Amino acid sequence: MNKSFKNLATLFGAGALTFSSASGELPNFNNVTVTVVGDAGQNMESLNKYADDFTKAGVTIKQVGATFTGLYDKLKTDFVAGSGDYDMVIFYPSYIGDFAGNGYLTPLDDLMKKTPASIWDPKLDEVEPPYREIYCKWGGKVYALPYDGDVLELYYRKDFFQDPAEKAAFQQKYTRDLVPPVTWKEWLEVAEFFTRKQGDTLAGKKLERPYYGVAEYGARGFSYGWFLCRFASAGGVYFDENMNPKINTPAAVEGLQNMVDSLKFCPPDVLSYGYEELKNAFLNGDVAMVVQWSDVGKKTADPQLSKVVGKVGFALVPGTQVNGRVQHRTPMPVGRVLAVPATSKNKEAAYWVAKYLSLDKSPITVSANWSGQDPYRISHFADPSHYKFSDEVSRKDYLDATEANLKNGFPDLNIPGAAQYIDALDLAVNKALSGEADPKAALDGAAEDWKGITERLGKDNQKKFWTEALSSYRAAGLLQ
Q1: Which of 3, 59, 355, 384 is most buried (CB neighbours < 10 A)?
Q2: In whole angstroms, what is the distance from residue 314 CA to residue 164 CA?
Protein backbone atom coordinates (compact mmCIF):
# COMPACT_ATOMS: atom_id res chain seq x y z
CA MET A 1 0.00 0.00 0.00
CA ASN A 2 1.23 3.51 -0.87
CA LYS A 3 2.77 5.13 2.20
CA SER A 4 0.64 8.26 1.85
CA PHE A 5 -2.53 6.17 1.96
CA LYS A 6 -1.25 4.27 4.97
CA ASN A 7 -0.57 7.51 6.80
CA LEU A 8 -3.95 8.86 5.77
CA ALA A 9 -5.71 5.77 7.07
CA THR A 10 -3.88 6.08 10.36
CA LEU A 11 -4.71 9.77 10.63
CA PHE A 12 -8.40 9.30 9.94
CA GLY A 13 -8.84 6.06 11.88
CA ALA A 14 -10.21 4.29 8.82
CA GLY A 15 -9.69 0.69 7.84
CA ALA A 16 -6.89 -0.31 5.51
CA LEU A 17 -7.41 0.94 1.98
CA THR A 18 -6.66 -0.99 -1.18
CA PHE A 19 -7.74 -0.60 -4.79
CA SER A 20 -9.92 -2.89 -6.81
CA SER A 21 -7.90 -4.67 -9.47
CA ALA A 22 -11.10 -5.59 -11.30
CA SER A 23 -12.08 -2.15 -12.54
CA GLY A 24 -9.23 0.13 -11.51
CA GLU A 25 -11.88 2.74 -10.66
CA LEU A 26 -13.18 1.77 -7.24
CA PRO A 27 -11.20 1.68 -4.02
CA ASN A 28 -11.72 -1.03 -1.44
CA PHE A 29 -12.25 0.20 2.11
CA ASN A 30 -12.44 -3.32 3.53
CA ASN A 31 -15.95 -3.30 4.93
CA VAL A 32 -16.51 -0.02 6.69
CA THR A 33 -19.91 1.49 7.44
CA VAL A 34 -20.55 5.07 6.37
CA THR A 35 -23.53 6.61 8.15
CA VAL A 36 -25.20 9.26 5.98
CA VAL A 37 -27.81 11.74 7.16
CA GLY A 38 -29.93 14.02 4.98
CA ASP A 39 -33.51 15.03 4.28
CA ALA A 40 -35.42 11.82 3.62
CA GLY A 41 -36.95 11.06 0.24
CA GLN A 42 -35.82 11.49 -3.35
CA ASN A 43 -32.66 13.38 -2.41
CA MET A 44 -31.23 10.28 -0.71
CA GLU A 45 -32.36 7.91 -3.44
CA SER A 46 -28.96 7.89 -5.13
CA LEU A 47 -27.61 6.01 -2.09
CA ASN A 48 -29.95 3.18 -3.06
CA LYS A 49 -29.40 3.44 -6.82
CA TYR A 50 -25.63 3.05 -6.52
CA ALA A 51 -25.59 0.64 -3.59
CA ASP A 52 -23.84 -2.07 -5.63
CA ASP A 53 -20.94 0.27 -6.35
CA PHE A 54 -20.55 1.11 -2.69
CA THR A 55 -20.58 -2.58 -1.82
CA LYS A 56 -17.85 -3.28 -4.38
CA ALA A 57 -15.79 -0.54 -2.74
CA GLY A 58 -16.14 -2.19 0.66
CA VAL A 59 -18.58 0.41 1.97
CA THR A 60 -21.92 -0.24 3.62
CA ILE A 61 -24.20 2.79 3.68
CA LYS A 62 -26.39 3.36 6.71
CA GLN A 63 -29.05 5.98 6.03
CA VAL A 64 -30.51 8.33 8.63
CA GLY A 65 -33.40 10.45 7.41
CA ALA A 66 -34.60 13.80 8.66
CA THR A 67 -37.54 15.97 7.72
CA PHE A 68 -36.86 18.85 5.37
CA THR A 69 -37.41 21.42 8.09
CA GLY A 70 -35.85 19.33 10.86
CA LEU A 71 -32.48 18.66 9.23
CA TYR A 72 -30.70 21.68 10.69
CA ASP A 73 -31.67 20.88 14.28
CA LYS A 74 -30.71 17.22 13.83
CA LEU A 75 -27.26 18.10 12.53
CA LYS A 76 -26.63 20.97 14.91
CA THR A 77 -27.49 18.82 17.93
CA ASP A 78 -25.01 16.15 16.85
CA PHE A 79 -22.29 18.67 16.03
CA VAL A 80 -22.56 20.57 19.30
CA ALA A 81 -22.58 17.34 21.30
CA GLY A 82 -19.61 16.01 19.32
CA SER A 83 -21.20 12.57 19.31
CA GLY A 84 -19.83 11.58 15.91
CA ASP A 85 -22.95 9.70 14.86
CA TYR A 86 -22.59 10.65 11.20
CA ASP A 87 -19.81 10.13 8.66
CA MET A 88 -21.30 12.09 5.76
CA VAL A 89 -23.95 14.78 5.83
CA ILE A 90 -26.23 16.05 3.07
CA PHE A 91 -27.36 19.57 3.87
CA TYR A 92 -28.54 22.85 2.38
CA PRO A 93 -25.58 25.11 1.61
CA SER A 94 -27.12 28.05 3.46
CA TYR A 95 -25.80 26.27 6.57
CA ILE A 96 -22.16 26.14 5.48
CA GLY A 97 -21.17 29.33 7.28
CA ASP A 98 -22.61 27.97 10.51
CA PHE A 99 -21.18 24.47 10.16
CA ALA A 100 -17.76 25.29 8.69
CA GLY A 101 -17.35 28.54 10.60
CA ASN A 102 -17.88 26.74 13.89
CA GLY A 103 -15.46 23.92 13.07
CA TYR A 104 -18.04 21.17 12.64
CA LEU A 105 -16.81 20.05 9.21
CA THR A 106 -13.59 18.51 7.88
CA PRO A 107 -11.67 20.60 5.33
CA LEU A 108 -11.48 18.53 2.15
CA ASP A 109 -8.56 20.17 0.36
CA ASP A 110 -5.94 17.56 1.31
CA LEU A 111 -8.18 14.64 0.39
CA MET A 112 -8.93 16.23 -2.96
CA LYS A 113 -5.21 16.26 -3.82
CA LYS A 114 -4.55 12.57 -3.15
CA THR A 115 -3.64 10.19 -5.94
CA PRO A 116 -4.84 8.51 -8.01
CA ALA A 117 -6.98 11.45 -9.15
CA SER A 118 -9.64 9.07 -10.49
CA ILE A 119 -10.42 8.15 -6.89
CA TRP A 120 -9.96 11.44 -5.07
CA ASP A 121 -10.24 14.46 -7.37
CA PRO A 122 -13.83 15.87 -7.44
CA LYS A 123 -12.94 18.22 -10.33
CA LEU A 124 -14.32 21.34 -8.68
CA ASP A 125 -12.75 23.46 -11.40
CA GLU A 126 -15.62 22.46 -13.69
CA VAL A 127 -18.35 23.32 -11.19
CA GLU A 128 -20.22 26.52 -12.05
CA PRO A 129 -18.58 29.39 -10.07
CA PRO A 130 -21.52 30.55 -7.90
CA TYR A 131 -22.00 27.02 -6.64
CA ARG A 132 -18.29 26.26 -6.18
CA GLU A 133 -17.20 29.50 -4.54
CA ILE A 134 -20.22 30.23 -2.36
CA TYR A 135 -21.83 26.90 -1.50
CA CYS A 136 -18.76 24.65 -1.20
CA LYS A 137 -16.11 26.91 0.34
CA TRP A 138 -15.66 28.83 3.56
CA GLY A 139 -12.69 30.92 4.61
CA GLY A 140 -10.74 29.91 1.51
CA LYS A 141 -11.07 26.16 2.15
CA VAL A 142 -13.32 23.52 0.60
CA TYR A 143 -15.73 22.02 3.12
CA ALA A 144 -18.36 20.48 0.84
CA LEU A 145 -18.89 18.93 -2.59
CA PRO A 146 -21.85 19.86 -4.78
CA TYR A 147 -24.79 17.49 -5.03
CA ASP A 148 -27.92 19.39 -6.11
CA GLY A 149 -27.66 22.52 -8.21
CA ASP A 150 -30.98 24.16 -7.40
CA VAL A 151 -31.59 27.37 -9.34
CA LEU A 152 -34.75 29.09 -10.51
CA GLU A 153 -35.71 29.28 -14.17
CA LEU A 154 -38.34 30.89 -16.37
CA TYR A 155 -40.80 28.52 -18.07
CA TYR A 156 -43.29 29.74 -20.65
CA ARG A 157 -45.76 28.36 -23.18
CA LYS A 158 -43.80 28.73 -26.39
CA ASP A 159 -46.78 27.54 -28.45
CA PHE A 160 -48.74 30.59 -27.29
CA PHE A 161 -45.80 32.95 -27.74
CA GLN A 162 -45.39 31.68 -31.32
CA ASP A 163 -49.09 31.82 -32.24
CA PRO A 164 -49.55 34.38 -35.08
CA ALA A 165 -52.79 35.82 -33.71
CA GLU A 166 -51.38 36.22 -30.21
CA LYS A 167 -48.21 37.84 -31.58
CA ALA A 168 -50.24 40.33 -33.61
CA ALA A 169 -52.50 41.20 -30.67
CA PHE A 170 -49.56 41.73 -28.36
CA GLN A 171 -47.76 43.91 -30.92
CA GLN A 172 -50.87 46.06 -31.30
CA LYS A 173 -51.33 46.51 -27.53
CA TYR A 174 -47.72 46.96 -26.38
CA THR A 175 -45.97 48.01 -29.63
CA ARG A 176 -43.25 45.38 -29.21
CA ASP A 177 -42.75 41.73 -30.10
CA LEU A 178 -44.23 38.96 -27.98
CA VAL A 179 -41.15 37.33 -26.46
CA PRO A 180 -40.32 35.90 -23.04
CA PRO A 181 -40.00 38.80 -20.58
CA VAL A 182 -36.47 40.09 -20.11
CA THR A 183 -37.35 42.50 -17.29
CA TRP A 184 -39.82 42.42 -14.43
CA LYS A 185 -41.74 45.27 -16.06
CA GLU A 186 -42.17 43.07 -19.14
CA TRP A 187 -43.19 40.17 -16.87
CA LEU A 188 -46.24 42.15 -15.75
CA GLU A 189 -47.13 43.11 -19.32
CA VAL A 190 -46.98 39.53 -20.60
CA ALA A 191 -48.84 38.30 -17.52
CA GLU A 192 -51.61 40.82 -18.13
CA PHE A 193 -51.79 39.93 -21.81
CA PHE A 194 -52.30 36.20 -21.28
CA THR A 195 -54.83 36.53 -18.45
CA ARG A 196 -58.22 35.72 -19.99
CA LYS A 197 -61.79 35.21 -18.84
CA GLN A 198 -63.92 32.15 -19.50
CA GLY A 199 -65.26 32.41 -23.04
CA ASP A 200 -62.30 34.41 -24.33
CA THR A 201 -60.12 33.03 -27.11
CA LEU A 202 -56.53 31.88 -26.55
CA ALA A 203 -54.43 30.73 -29.50
CA GLY A 204 -57.58 30.18 -31.55
CA LYS A 205 -59.50 28.17 -28.92
CA LYS A 206 -62.41 29.33 -26.81
CA LEU A 207 -61.65 29.00 -23.09
CA GLU A 208 -63.96 26.89 -20.97
CA ARG A 209 -62.52 28.40 -17.77
CA PRO A 210 -60.38 31.40 -16.84
CA TYR A 211 -56.75 31.38 -17.86
CA TYR A 212 -53.93 33.12 -16.01
CA GLY A 213 -50.80 34.79 -17.24
CA VAL A 214 -48.54 33.73 -14.37
CA ALA A 215 -48.35 32.12 -10.94
CA GLU A 216 -46.04 32.88 -8.01
CA TYR A 217 -44.78 30.89 -5.05
CA GLY A 218 -47.29 32.40 -2.64
CA ALA A 219 -47.11 30.06 0.35
CA ARG A 220 -45.05 30.58 3.47
CA GLY A 221 -41.61 29.00 3.33
CA PHE A 222 -39.96 29.89 0.02
CA SER A 223 -41.83 32.93 -1.25
CA TYR A 224 -38.72 34.91 -0.28
CA GLY A 225 -36.94 33.30 -3.26
CA TRP A 226 -39.40 34.85 -5.70
CA PHE A 227 -38.85 38.23 -4.02
CA LEU A 228 -35.07 37.70 -4.31
CA CYS A 229 -35.53 37.37 -8.10
CA ARG A 230 -36.50 41.03 -8.17
CA PHE A 231 -34.27 42.21 -5.32
CA ALA A 232 -31.04 40.59 -6.48
CA SER A 233 -31.37 41.61 -10.13
CA ALA A 234 -31.71 45.23 -8.97
CA GLY A 235 -28.27 44.91 -7.38
CA GLY A 236 -29.46 43.98 -3.91
CA VAL A 237 -27.29 42.29 -1.30
CA TYR A 238 -28.40 41.15 2.13
CA PHE A 239 -26.26 43.50 4.26
CA ASP A 240 -23.72 46.24 3.83
CA GLU A 241 -20.19 45.63 5.08
CA ASN A 242 -21.18 46.70 8.60
CA MET A 243 -24.08 44.24 8.85
CA ASN A 244 -26.77 46.86 8.27
CA PRO A 245 -29.71 45.19 6.47
CA LYS A 246 -30.24 46.24 2.85
CA ILE A 247 -33.47 44.36 2.25
CA ASN A 248 -35.65 47.46 2.59
CA THR A 249 -33.95 49.79 0.11
CA PRO A 250 -36.17 51.60 -2.44
CA ALA A 251 -35.16 49.03 -5.07
CA ALA A 252 -36.12 46.18 -2.72
CA VAL A 253 -39.52 47.79 -2.03
CA GLU A 254 -40.07 48.26 -5.76
CA GLY A 255 -39.24 44.59 -6.32
CA LEU A 256 -41.72 43.40 -3.72
CA GLN A 257 -44.36 45.72 -5.17
CA ASN A 258 -43.78 44.06 -8.56
CA MET A 259 -44.43 40.67 -6.96
CA VAL A 260 -47.61 41.97 -5.33
CA ASP A 261 -48.77 43.45 -8.65
CA SER A 262 -48.18 40.07 -10.28
CA LEU A 263 -50.93 38.54 -8.14
CA LYS A 264 -53.57 40.28 -10.28
CA PHE A 265 -52.69 37.86 -13.08
CA CYS A 266 -52.43 34.70 -10.95
CA PRO A 267 -54.99 32.02 -10.04
CA PRO A 268 -57.15 33.16 -7.09
CA ASP A 269 -55.71 30.56 -4.71
CA VAL A 270 -52.08 31.44 -5.46
CA LEU A 271 -51.27 32.38 -1.85
CA SER A 272 -51.50 28.67 -1.05
CA TYR A 273 -49.07 27.71 -3.82
CA GLY A 274 -45.96 25.88 -2.70
CA TYR A 275 -43.65 23.87 -4.92
CA GLU A 276 -46.20 21.21 -5.88
CA GLU A 277 -49.06 23.61 -6.59
CA LEU A 278 -46.89 25.96 -8.63
CA LYS A 279 -45.39 23.07 -10.58
CA ASN A 280 -48.78 21.54 -11.30
CA ALA A 281 -50.32 24.83 -12.36
CA PHE A 282 -47.82 24.96 -15.20
CA LEU A 283 -47.65 21.26 -16.04
CA ASN A 284 -51.47 21.08 -16.18
CA GLY A 285 -51.59 23.99 -18.63
CA ASP A 286 -53.30 26.50 -16.33
CA VAL A 287 -50.83 29.40 -16.65
CA ALA A 288 -48.67 30.88 -19.40
CA MET A 289 -45.51 31.47 -17.34
CA VAL A 290 -43.90 30.50 -14.05
CA VAL A 291 -40.56 30.85 -12.35
CA GLN A 292 -39.70 27.51 -10.79
CA TRP A 293 -36.77 25.30 -9.83
CA SER A 294 -34.76 23.77 -12.65
CA ASP A 295 -35.98 20.21 -11.94
CA VAL A 296 -39.42 21.23 -13.23
CA GLY A 297 -37.94 21.54 -16.71
CA LYS A 298 -37.28 17.80 -16.82
CA LYS A 299 -40.83 17.12 -15.69
CA THR A 300 -42.33 19.20 -18.50
CA ALA A 301 -41.05 16.52 -20.90
CA ASP A 302 -42.58 13.57 -19.04
CA PRO A 303 -46.04 12.66 -20.42
CA GLN A 304 -46.85 10.92 -17.13
CA LEU A 305 -46.53 14.28 -15.36
CA SER A 306 -47.09 16.94 -17.99
CA LYS A 307 -49.90 18.05 -20.29
CA VAL A 308 -47.58 20.52 -22.03
CA VAL A 309 -44.93 18.19 -23.46
CA GLY A 310 -43.13 19.88 -26.36
CA LYS A 311 -44.92 23.20 -25.75
CA VAL A 312 -42.52 24.70 -23.22
CA GLY A 313 -39.85 27.33 -23.59
CA PHE A 314 -37.00 27.91 -21.14
CA ALA A 315 -35.28 31.21 -20.39
CA LEU A 316 -33.36 33.38 -17.96
CA VAL A 317 -35.38 34.61 -15.01
CA PRO A 318 -36.27 38.25 -15.77
CA GLY A 319 -33.90 40.95 -14.63
CA THR A 320 -33.83 44.65 -13.80
CA GLN A 321 -32.43 47.51 -15.81
CA VAL A 322 -29.49 48.99 -13.90
CA ASN A 323 -27.39 51.81 -15.37
CA GLY A 324 -28.76 51.25 -18.84
CA ARG A 325 -28.39 47.46 -19.01
CA VAL A 326 -30.51 44.56 -17.86
CA GLN A 327 -28.92 42.70 -14.95
CA HIS A 328 -29.91 39.11 -14.18
CA ARG A 329 -29.36 37.53 -10.77
CA THR A 330 -31.14 34.20 -10.40
CA PRO A 331 -31.79 32.92 -6.86
CA MET A 332 -30.49 29.49 -5.88
CA PRO A 333 -32.88 28.52 -3.05
CA VAL A 334 -32.06 25.33 -1.13
CA GLY A 335 -29.65 23.12 -3.14
CA ARG A 336 -27.65 20.41 -1.40
CA VAL A 337 -24.00 19.71 -0.69
CA LEU A 338 -22.08 16.77 0.77
CA ALA A 339 -19.66 17.12 3.67
CA VAL A 340 -17.70 15.09 6.21
CA PRO A 341 -18.17 16.01 9.89
CA ALA A 342 -15.06 16.70 11.93
CA THR A 343 -16.14 13.88 14.27
CA SER A 344 -16.61 11.26 11.51
CA LYS A 345 -15.04 7.90 12.36
CA ASN A 346 -14.57 7.02 8.66
CA LYS A 347 -13.54 10.26 7.01
CA GLU A 348 -11.67 8.71 4.11
CA ALA A 349 -14.49 6.42 3.03
CA ALA A 350 -17.10 9.12 3.66
CA TYR A 351 -15.22 11.57 1.48
CA TRP A 352 -14.97 9.02 -1.33
CA VAL A 353 -18.73 8.37 -1.21
CA ALA A 354 -19.32 12.12 -1.45
CA LYS A 355 -16.88 12.45 -4.35
CA TYR A 356 -18.45 9.48 -6.17
CA LEU A 357 -21.91 11.03 -5.90
CA SER A 358 -20.74 14.54 -6.70
CA LEU A 359 -18.72 13.62 -9.79
CA ASP A 360 -18.77 10.05 -11.08
CA LYS A 361 -22.52 9.37 -10.98
CA SER A 362 -23.74 12.93 -11.18
CA PRO A 363 -24.50 12.98 -14.95
CA ILE A 364 -27.09 10.24 -14.41
CA THR A 365 -28.43 11.61 -11.14
CA VAL A 366 -29.03 15.21 -12.18
CA SER A 367 -30.83 14.21 -15.37
CA ALA A 368 -33.23 11.75 -13.72
CA ASN A 369 -36.72 12.53 -12.44
CA TRP A 370 -36.30 10.07 -9.56
CA SER A 371 -33.53 12.08 -7.93
CA GLY A 372 -34.68 15.65 -7.49
CA GLN A 373 -31.09 16.76 -8.16
CA ASP A 374 -30.25 19.44 -10.71
CA PRO A 375 -27.12 20.13 -12.81
CA TYR A 376 -24.19 22.14 -11.43
CA ARG A 377 -21.18 21.08 -13.53
CA ILE A 378 -20.06 22.29 -16.95
CA SER A 379 -20.00 18.63 -18.03
CA HIS A 380 -23.67 18.27 -17.14
CA PHE A 381 -24.44 20.75 -19.88
CA ALA A 382 -21.82 19.56 -22.37
CA ASP A 383 -23.29 16.04 -22.61
CA PRO A 384 -27.09 16.13 -23.02
CA SER A 385 -27.50 12.41 -23.72
CA HIS A 386 -28.92 11.55 -20.29
CA TYR A 387 -31.78 14.06 -20.49
CA LYS A 388 -35.05 12.72 -21.85
CA PHE A 389 -37.00 15.27 -23.89
CA SER A 390 -39.47 14.80 -26.72
CA ASP A 391 -37.29 16.78 -29.14
CA GLU A 392 -33.71 17.96 -29.41
CA VAL A 393 -34.65 21.65 -29.49
CA SER A 394 -36.39 21.45 -26.11
CA ARG A 395 -33.52 19.52 -24.57
CA LYS A 396 -30.96 22.04 -25.79
CA ASP A 397 -33.09 25.03 -24.75
CA TYR A 398 -33.58 23.58 -21.27
CA LEU A 399 -29.88 22.98 -20.70
CA ASP A 400 -28.88 26.35 -22.15
CA ALA A 401 -31.35 28.19 -19.93
CA THR A 402 -30.42 26.22 -16.82
CA GLU A 403 -26.73 26.90 -17.34
CA ALA A 404 -27.34 30.59 -18.01
CA ASN A 405 -29.37 30.95 -14.82
CA LEU A 406 -26.75 29.09 -12.79
CA LYS A 407 -23.96 31.28 -14.15
CA ASN A 408 -25.94 34.25 -12.85
CA GLY A 409 -26.82 32.47 -9.61
CA PHE A 410 -27.59 34.51 -6.49
CA PRO A 411 -27.06 32.51 -3.31
CA ASP A 412 -29.18 31.95 -0.27
CA LEU A 413 -27.77 33.70 2.78
CA ASN A 414 -25.18 31.30 4.18
CA ILE A 415 -23.89 32.75 7.45
CA PRO A 416 -24.78 31.59 10.98
CA GLY A 417 -28.36 32.58 11.71
CA ALA A 418 -29.31 32.26 8.02
CA ALA A 419 -32.44 30.27 8.82
CA GLN A 420 -33.65 32.98 11.21
CA TYR A 421 -32.91 35.85 8.84
CA ILE A 422 -34.60 34.12 5.91
CA ASP A 423 -37.65 33.17 7.95
CA ALA A 424 -38.14 36.81 8.96
CA LEU A 425 -37.81 37.89 5.31
CA ASP A 426 -40.23 35.21 4.14
CA LEU A 427 -42.79 36.34 6.72
CA ALA A 428 -42.47 39.92 5.47
CA VAL A 429 -42.98 38.84 1.85
CA ASN A 430 -46.11 36.92 2.85
CA LYS A 431 -47.48 39.91 4.75
CA ALA A 432 -47.14 42.01 1.60
CA LEU A 433 -48.67 39.34 -0.64
CA SER A 434 -51.67 38.90 1.65
CA GLY A 435 -52.23 42.64 2.02
CA GLU A 436 -51.49 42.60 5.74
CA ALA A 437 -48.79 45.22 5.16
CA ASP A 438 -47.63 47.29 2.21
CA PRO A 439 -44.24 46.30 0.76
CA LYS A 440 -42.31 49.12 2.46
CA ALA A 441 -43.77 48.46 5.90
CA ALA A 442 -43.26 44.72 5.50
CA LEU A 443 -39.60 45.05 4.53
CA ASP A 444 -38.94 47.74 7.16
CA GLY A 445 -40.24 45.28 9.74
CA ALA A 446 -38.00 42.51 8.41
CA ALA A 447 -34.97 44.81 8.54
CA GLU A 448 -35.67 45.53 12.22
CA ASP A 449 -36.00 41.80 12.86
CA TRP A 450 -32.65 41.26 11.13
CA LYS A 451 -30.99 43.84 13.36
CA GLY A 452 -32.34 41.99 16.41
CA ILE A 453 -31.06 38.63 15.14
CA THR A 454 -27.62 40.13 14.53
CA GLU A 455 -27.45 41.59 18.03
CA ARG A 456 -28.52 38.30 19.62
CA LEU A 457 -25.87 36.36 17.69
CA GLY A 458 -23.18 38.98 18.32
CA LYS A 459 -22.64 41.73 15.77
CA ASP A 460 -18.86 41.43 15.71
CA ASN A 461 -19.01 37.70 14.99
CA GLN A 462 -21.73 38.15 12.38
CA LYS A 463 -19.73 40.87 10.68
CA LYS A 464 -16.75 38.51 10.49
CA PHE A 465 -18.89 35.77 8.93
CA TRP A 466 -20.50 38.21 6.50
CA THR A 467 -17.06 39.44 5.39
CA GLU A 468 -16.21 35.83 4.51
CA ALA A 469 -19.46 35.51 2.58
CA LEU A 470 -18.81 38.71 0.63
CA SER A 471 -15.40 37.34 -0.35
CA SER A 472 -17.06 34.29 -1.84
CA TYR A 473 -19.56 36.50 -3.70
CA ARG A 474 -16.67 38.37 -5.27
CA ALA A 475 -14.86 35.15 -6.12
CA ALA A 476 -17.98 33.98 -7.95
CA GLY A 477 -18.17 37.22 -9.90
CA LEU A 478 -21.42 38.45 -8.33
CA LEU A 479 -19.85 41.56 -6.80
CA GLN A 480 -17.01 43.86 -7.77
Answers
A1: 59
A2: 20
Residue 20, φ and ψ in degrees, nearest 5: -70, 125
10 Å CB burial of residue 294 (0-12, 13-18, 19+) is: buried
Domain count, the chain: 2
- pTM of the entire structure? 0.90
Apex CA 80: angle with CA 74 and CA 81, to 5°?
Answer: 90
Is residue 385, in this structure, part of any structural domain at all?
no
Q: How many whole angstroms separate alpha carbon 282 and alpha carbon 308?
A: 8
Q: 65-76: per-residue pLDDT in tens?
A: 999 889 999 999
DSSP 296-327: HHHHTT-TTT-S-TT-EEEEPPPBEEETTEEE
Residue 426 shares a structural domain with residue 362: no
In a domain, 379, yes or no: no
Q: Distance (Å, rounded) from C-alpha 251 to C-alpha 254? A: 5
Q: What is the pLDDT of residue 480?
A: 65
What CATH number corresponds to the domain at position 232? Answer: 3.40.190.10
Residue 64 to residues 59, 67, 78, 222, 441: CA-CA distances in angstroms? Answer: 16, 10, 13, 25, 42
Q: Do 295 and 321 lie in a common domain?
A: yes
Alpha carbons 91 and 161: distance in angstroms, whole number: 39
d(CA 58, CA 349): 9
